Records
---
Amino acid sequence: MAANANVNVTLRMDKNLKQRLQELLSNLGLDMTTYFTMSARQAVREQCIPFKVTMEVPNAETRKAMKDTIEGKGLSKEYSSFEEMMRDIDAED
């Protein structure tokens, strides 16, 4: 077998997912073979999965807090004096 011989790889995926992926790749000027080859090369080169694999999906409250932080909303509260700040802190307890 030659050093750079190609082999066939078969995989199964949801039909809808495949169609959506093909549409995306087509818009990017790629086909499925090129995409999977690129992903495989990057995984081998970096010795890791070439994207973040996580189960962490922020809930609606966390997404809102992240958006507010990015937009600078609700990051701090202004006080006219130290005493006013301490009264507010004590009221929260």
---
Amino acid sequence: MAHGVGIFGISVDSVFSHQAFAKELGGLPFDLVGDFERKMVTDYGVRRDDVAGYAGMARRSIFIVDRAGIIRFTWIAAREKPQPDYDEVIAEAKKVAAEG
């Protein structure tokens, strides 16, 4: 990917939880961002308030945002599609990075 492009994982969990998660996996190739106040998951429309026990949690989702801050690709988990097409995600990320 082009210089200046970043990949971030965002979670409503605490920073301490992120550190433990990354350590358990032997490290991660991207930074984890804490959204403990649930502002990002609300602003991006992926906050779950539909199932008891998951209130305020995020739906599993992927957003590819260009350098201008425009969302260029979105995938949000659904019962019929719980995992993204990773090849499609990578292709879209490369396309947006190349347009940089």
